[in-house]
Amino acid sequence: xxxxxMVVDDHRLLAEALASALxxxxxxxxxxxxxxxxxxxxxxTRAPEVCLLGTxxxxxxxxxxxxxxxxxERPQVAVLVLGPVPSPRGIAAAFAAGxxxxxxxxxxxxxxxxxxxxxxxxxxxxxxxxxxxAFSELLNPAxxxxxxxxxxxxxxxxxxxxxLVRVADGEDTRLIAAGMGIAPSTARTHVQRVLMKLxxxxxxxxxxxxxxxxxxxxxxxVSQPETQGEP
Length: 231
Known about the structure:
This is Response regulator transcription factor. By secondary structure, this protein is α/β, with parallel strands linked by helices. About 55% of the residues lie in helices and about 10% in strands.
């Protein structure tokens, strides 16, 4: 017996192609496409057995709010998230919001159909390796940005922190050396050590990482030039 389902995705072509393929396999597809903002309301109104809900960025905060809303208003609807290869945090967030499973965009139609049948039966519909990653993330949550910034800060010496702040301010080696009262070769060495400790390949990457993790906010103001240079 076919499943009464919906395919809801921002990309109309993808949604309609998947809906057509599922119709050919005997399922009753109620709708094919809708903007993300209206997805939850559409599903709540139609109340299918299973909903395939598309997402392009599974790790973005609030991305699974529609899933939570659907489950709150229509708990009997099984929601399958349809998206790209996710991070473990993305999988964990989908399940935390109430999703019954996660199906990759590049999954074969047979795999999609198996996930639909599992979801309707109340089972978790997700590839074993993705589920394993999700459980690992839930049991050992990754550090939040503030925690990550603190961890990175502890890896650097006070002098290296000052170098990083100056790098983030756009100073080149000459300006760093002048501002800190050290030789350019010493400044260059400090910069290389900072890049190595942060695990990045360029000054731009280092500055971006420091800004993203809040490290710069914790670093404080840079020091004044020294009266004598370092050897």
